[in-house]
Amino acid sequence: DGDRIGVGIRLTEKGHYQTLSGNQQIVLLTDYMLSQLTDRDGKLPENSCIAKTVVSTDLARIIADAFGVSTIEPQVGFKYIGEKLSLFAVRAMEQAIQVKDEIVRDKHYSQLTRKERIALLEKYSTCFLFGGEESYGSLIGDFVKDKDAVTIAAMFVEMAGFYKKKGITLTQRLEEIYQEYCYTREETVALKFEGALGNDVIQSVMKSLRNDPIQQIAGCNVIAIIDFQSPQPGARRTAKDADGSILFDDSEPRNPDRFTGYAMVRDIPVPHFWSSDYRIIGKAARLPESNVLMFVVEGGSKIVVRPSGTEPKIKFYVLARGELGKAKDIQSEKKKVDAFFLVAKKELTDFVNQIAAPMMNA
Fold this sequence. Notes:
By secondary structure, the protein is of the alpha+beta class. The protein has helices at about 20-40, 60-65, 80-100, 115-125, 150-165, 170-180, 195-210, 280, 330-360; strands at about 10, 15-20, 50, 70, 125-135, 135-140, 185-190, 215, 220-225, 240, 245-250, 260-265, 270, 295, 300-305, 315-320.
């Protein structure tokens, strides 16, 4: 239905292609969109934002930070990004109508051009530039409220042509981004357990992770555990350190103008229960309850765990990253990140199997 896109890049070897992961697509698109808009217009629209779900690459946020653009980090599912676009538009129209702005005279938001929308959003709301999720879905602008592979395909064609004129490929540009910001590697480990017993296994894994949280992952200490599901109705959702001390909870932010959507834990931005658009949309910025756990380790790598909503699987999103800043030795960085990545995958699989084996064999 034209919502997701796969991208293959032809390599120098005849007949060989490198396929981009959904996260790599997000990285290339974020970098290209923000750099091209800056070069074309001299600056980005005021109050600009991008969006990426909590299970998607942090490199998109890191790039956005470098351009002074805020990042909105909603729950899994593109619908949560689409919902925000409507809220941003409503807020902008309400404010503009109240002050009788000429942009909206006798016009509905749907009748506004891209240029008019940007002028309206940056003045009265927040201007959404790009959004994406790891499952191969992205969106530019707000004319569509869901994943839009048609527009993204055109953007990749434009991007490929732009870099070809510079004598490089998309894979080479991706390497430059890793060199400039930090190297990242992401993958989803999905373990399948079918039937009623399989569902019991999945629930037991989630229960174990909550009651006896992992302290270390691939030799790295866990510094924050964010539980996006309340322990009981009406209770506060919390983020804790490895010792169980509360770092922050889902209380409403006190200072809307300074709220970024992240809490700093040992100099690592950790996603909050409220997204950065709280200043614009108020209580609608609160992330909904979801059976999702996030483990953040020293250095900033993450493991996000959740049961699949459509299949009998438990999913571990391994989001590994290197040190921030221009890499002095990118190959060394890659080796460290790849080592963490591979060990983390094995440890998580072994952890699940230790719980599953006795139950499946009983």
